Amino acid sequence: MTESRHPSKLRILHIVNWYPNVIDGGAGPFIRRHVLALMPHAEQEVWHLEVRQAKGWRLERLSLHADRTCMLVMPLNIWYLIEWVSTFMLLWAWWTRDRSRQYDLINVHIAYPLLTHLRLIRYFIRVPLVVTEQWSAYHFSFNSTSKGLDRIRRIFRNDLPLICVSRALGADIGTFAKREDLRVHVVDNVAETAVFHPTADATWTEGRFFALSGWRFPKRPDTLIEALAQVRAAGRPMRLRLGGNGPKMEAMKEAIARLGLAAHVDLLGHLSPEDAAREMRAAHAVLHASDYETYCAVCAEALCCGTPVIASAVGGIREYLEPGMGRQVADNEAATWTSAILEMWDPTCTMDRQRISERMTARASTQAVGSRYADILHQILEGQAR
Questions:
Q1: pLDDT in tens, 124-166
Q2: Quick check: pTM over 0.90?
Q3: Is 29 exposed, middle or buried (0-12, 13-18, 19+ CB in 10 A)?
Q4: 241 is in which domain, residue-wise?
Q5: Does some domain include residue 369?
């Protein structure tokens, strides 16, 4: 990691709603990567405060990576109650803090439900707040028409500086909150380039395509499987290797059997990051069909490996998948994907994989994200001072 280019380090308190913890060690990985990326540029403290719905009651105070953790597990699905419990948890944490610690900014990651009662929080906490969002739920309006959504909208009607992982997410939040004047800054998700990078000994195989996902909405594995059948029918020797698991797996297996593709599909199951990177480097191209993506870490990681990507033209993907790096597909019809794969078959064979990696690494590496993140926080603090 590089040292900060600013004359003094910011003092940042991160308050996170999702973070790796003793109940779920895989929670909030993108938030943790943002915090780690900022490490050379700031003195940091992390509080993990979360109300989680599950069977039974449990209060967890043990931390894996946070400086303070307070997780309340409760069997009640009453959002009004969850919002107030989250608010009091935040105020309790502030009241019982180490008062020798001083902060320039408080960065709240995932605003809801922690900031539902923002005016009350601001009354007691007189430190400038900034919000970082990574949640795709805003695009789908939380799949709800409840009047309770107005309590979430109010958070973004209070002139809070907002950091998003894509312009698309910023636009989603603006549409959801009915605000056209949100102050939105963009900081990419971190691609762990210590893992996702080209290697001198890597060789890729023509016709070997790779896709990786947690196979659930809004992913479209059905599109990829049907396109595989059509591409093979057009005479191209396409093979599809699918990593990951999820609720759509049974439907995927049924489609593979129905289309007679068992000999041309490899279901790889769960893959470690290292195994995923090897699959990406060995692939002709990485495919990603989805009805929406706030950012899509898989596509960014594939590009950091130097592998061309063919992906749905949705959300944050449109902001970094540029010509010379692959292809954006206009819709998720199998025929459209078949045409895109056939049209890109030869061009992806000659793309400069080292150059692809350099372009994405310059945007999404830990160093690049940390530097951008620090610059934005300095801008926000200077704006607060003015």
A1: 999 999 999 999 999 999 999 998 999 999 999 988 999 999 9
A2: yes
A3: middle
A4: 208-364
A5: yes
